Amino acid sequence: MIWEDTDICNHKVLPIEIGRGCVFNCSFCSYPLRGKHNLDYVRHAEILRDELMSNYKRFEITHYRLVDDTFNDHTDKLLMFRDVVKSLPFQPYFWCYARLDLLTTRPETIDLLYEIGCRALFFGIETMNERTGRHIGKGFSRSRQNETIAYIKEKYPDMMLHGSLIVGLPGDTEDDILNTFNRLVNQEIKLDNWSFK
User: Fold this and answer.
1) φ, ψ at 185 (rounded to 5°)
2) pTM to 2 decimals?
3) Assuming Cys at both sites, which of 111, 183, 184, 192 could form a disulfide with 188, CB separation 3.0 to 4.6 Å?
């Protein structure tokens, strides 16, 4: 992506895409390129480095929104991008979409995300009800994911964590939603912010 001067104006944060599509195929999602194979549609390291350098030299941009559907879908992609970032003469910072279940099963990638410069993570949690989670393709243990959130906040307190939840999924009751809300408010689930849709 080559930005024009008129595109930037007063912007200090730009979007950037490392890889297109999503390896998952959640039942509620209508995004294109769902269910792709690992490492399909990932940009080349040299092209990413050139784009980051160009934006830095031309506009002094150091902050980005990674617009990948799931940035942490494969460790090799993270390692490649970490190497790109390390090759730069500046430290960029990123906000990204990340799968919480993948961080839970691959805890080493938490440090890798921080090393890359990720300082804000957006989790599509959808529900804290495990039965409902299984129904929509997100059935991983909610208690283990909650432990991962707490671990990230303790180890990296400057990393902002956002959770998105869906109200009205099959199997979720009004009590389930209110219980989740109360757990968020009293910080039993240690997200910095959240939204219900």
Assistant:
1) -65, -40
2) 0.88
3) 183
